[in-house]
Amino acid sequence: MGWVFTDEMRFYLHEHETLLDGMIRTEHQQVRYECRQGYCGSCRMRVTAKTGELYYTKPPIAMLDDDEVLACCCKATGTLCVSYLANDGQLSLFTDKSDE
């Protein structure tokens, strides 16, 4: 429903797509995700600019800063600019510490 600009490229986000769906469709290489349900926080991205509105298909459970979104359950109208968050060393929800 609008253009999305990421660290890698720009693409058009279709009406039925979440931000994550659009990034997978356009073969973004750096996108991270796990649960696709809004609770693990792996797909957090920073919003650097936007026109239009952001809304969620389901309420996110993961903790977010005011300028962050969860790509797995976020939809947008208008233009959206997002950047990847640096891996801050948080353990993944699905990481088995015995593997380390």
What does this structure look like?
GO terms for molecular function: 2 iron, 2 sulfur cluster binding. InterPro entries: 2Fe-2S_ferredoxin-like_sf, 2Fe-2S_ferredoxin-type, 2Fe2S_fd_BS, Beta-grasp_dom_sf. A 5-stranded mixed beta sheet has the order 2-1-7-3-5, with helices on one face. The protein has a two-stranded antiparallel ribbon with strand order 4-6. The chain has one domain (2-84): Ubiquitin-like (UB roll) (Roll), CATH 3.10.20. The protein starts with a strand and ends in a 16-residue tail after the last strand. The protein is globular and about 25 Å long. Mean pLDDT is 87; it is low at 89-100. It has one helix at 19-25; strands at residues 2-5, 10-13, 44-50, 54-56, 68-70, 74-76, 80-84. β1 (2-5) and β2 form a beta hairpin. With 100 residues, it is mainly beta.
